[in-house]
Amino acid sequence: MNTNKKNNTILFTIFGIVLIVVVGLLVFFANRPKTDDSSASSTNTSSSSQKVNYPTNYTLNAAVKNSSTALNDLTLPQLSTTVSEDEAEVQIKTSAGNINIKLFPKLAPNAVQNFLVLAKNGYYKNNEFFRVIKDFMIQSGDPSNKGTGTASIFGGKTFDTEISNQLYNIRGALALANTGQASSSSSQFFIVQNPQDMTSQIQDKSKYPQKIIDAYKKGGYPSLDGSYTVFGQVISGMDVVDKIAKADVKTNSSGESSAPIDPVKIKSVKILKDWKF
């Protein structure tokens, strides 16, 4: 009888360990944009080796509606390197160099506010670009550097994807990762690095402004459009992004060859032009 109880205890313990491992892997798999048409991802499980205090008492901004302007008459802020009055600007200082990015608070307010507040509170300091795929993207925004950490200033909860017909996943786009669900964006972000012509991915060109189609000839990932919040655009430092993407990688715990052997770290995120929400 005692032997049976002991065996049952061992079995339950083993089951518990296996369950934890499986859940951890599911979160990791969810935490990444995909290189095909399938939905991609960020995390909603906090597991951080770096303790960062940041406010969580912010209220979500109202959803922004798509512009009703004709596609080819739309204002397309990603195509200009000028930082306008209704945009913010940050500089991501990394161990490989600096990346200057302008942000679009009018088009993706929740993503921009979350990013700016976390940056001001040092959340991104020492974060690694823990997932890099050459000719696709580089990903960061998790202090645990495992793809399983997250942070949100909106009551600690993940928030909706913000999709705009004025923003696209062209080369240099800054976007939030998510779990493939509508309300799963948070702190993890990626920068689209692919420099190759990807217009072949555009299945219906009638839904795209011609200037964006032309931009995709210079790189990007159209298959990500409509699935991720684009909230910024690199305006200088794409050479640094390319350098990070070219890193030697090893297989990560999910079996993907994307874990850099010598990961680049974020030293700080400097606010060059703030935005008042």
Automatic annotation (TrEMBL):
Catalytic activity from the UniProt record: [protein]-peptidylproline (omega=180) = [protein]-peptidylproline (omega=0)
CDD domains xrefs: cyclophilin
Pfam families documented for this protein: Pro_isomerase (PF00160)
Transmembrane in keyword set: yes
Signal peptide: none
Molecular function terms from GO: peptidyl-prolyl cis-trans isomerase activity
Enzyme class, first EC level, given as a word: isomerase
TM ranges: 9-30
Annotated EC: 5.2.1.8
Domain PPIase cyclophilin-type: from-to ranges: 94-271
Keywords: Isomerase, Membrane, Rotamase, Transmembrane, Transmembrane helix
UniProt keyword Membrane present: yes
Role summary: PPIases accelerate the folding of proteins. It catalyzes the cis-trans isomerization of proline imidic peptide bonds in oligopeptides.
Family membership: Belongs to the cyclophilin-type PPIase family.
Official protein name in the record: Peptidyl-prolyl cis-trans isomerase
Native species: Lactococcus lactis subsp. cremoris
Lineage: Bacteria, Bacillati, Bacillota, Bacilli, Lactobacillales
